[in-house]
Amino acid sequence: MPVICQTPPEREARVRTAACEVTTGPGYVGSLLSPTVPTRMTWEHDCAQLILLVERRLVEQRAPRIRRLADELLDASPLALEASRFVQEKNLVTVPPLAADVWLMRMMSAEAQKTNPFFLGGDDIIVSYPTDTMSEDEKVQALRANNRHFSRATVFHELIPGHHLQYYWRQRSNRHRILFETPFWIEGWSLWWEFHLWDLKFTSTPEDRMGALFWRAHRCARIIFSLKFHLGEWTPQQCIDFLVERVGHERASATGEVRRSFNGAYSPLYQAGYMLGALQIRALYTQLVVTGKMPEKDFHDNILKGGTMPIEMVRVHLTQEKLPRDFKPTWRFADP
Ligand SMILES: [Zn+2]
User: Fold this and answer.
1) CA of 80 to the centre of ligand 1 (A)
2) Ligand 1 centroid, distance to 26 Cα (angstroms)
3) Distance from the CA of 292 to the CA of which of 63, 95, 141, 266 falls in 20 to 30 A?
4) Is residue 51 part of a domain?
5) How many A from CA of 107 to the centre of ligand 1?
6) pLDDT digit string, tens, across residues 219-234
């Protein structure tokens, strides 16, 4: 029996079927859709559609082999499952089965890696790794920058309990708060888990600890170089040199990191939001969970279900404090 494959030869198409929505395009992963579930496709700027009639037997023969090959090459699936299982076994946060089971992994193109040298996440995980159109030197640098031990500290930041779990809840709970999105909540949450899983001994081998500490140093460096640039004190080249010399970045990934920070795609405080947001959540955790006022799972679930907002507002939400009309931020989280 033949099956129909549809894909845009350039640009992207959005496919919505049942509760799942995926974006597809050249080089992305494919999904097999049930012919009995209603499906809606939206093609970006009415882009061209490539429609192929393929023998079903061939798709079934090749799909598992390609999937296995991708897993072996990228090796992100075991990393993703590891942290997801860890937080569920320790009862740290609710992981709904749909969030745990449904996520996509796709490859960052060589062009995109020039501004995104590391893994990215959200609805799905995008993997930065050597590709066939890179020079030999670029391939080696991409491989070093995203080696397994460095990636172990970022895969759960991007998936579960990090951004993928946030995105799951923000589409389902207090959606209106997306209007007030702030990097202190988005990135602070994922980096809080880097702190927390470190404290809970998720990272045990010397190589994995080096990977986690590399990222810890980088989160600090992000505050320094991004603020220095925005205050007019450093040039982009000085920022790149700082990342290479003080954090130990590859020159290609340091350059990509600086391009990403200043190309207008992120707000000026975005890079500071990671570490400062995480320190705020850590102070809140100490105040509410360590003192026994709130069970750990409720603390995490309520942050997710409350939606994106400044962490001082998360504090008000969790402690049920009454807000006066002329409320002004006063919380000194670094020195409570
Ligand atoms: Zn992030």
Assistant:
1) 15
2) 25
3) 95
4) yes
5) 17
6) 999 999 999 999 999 9
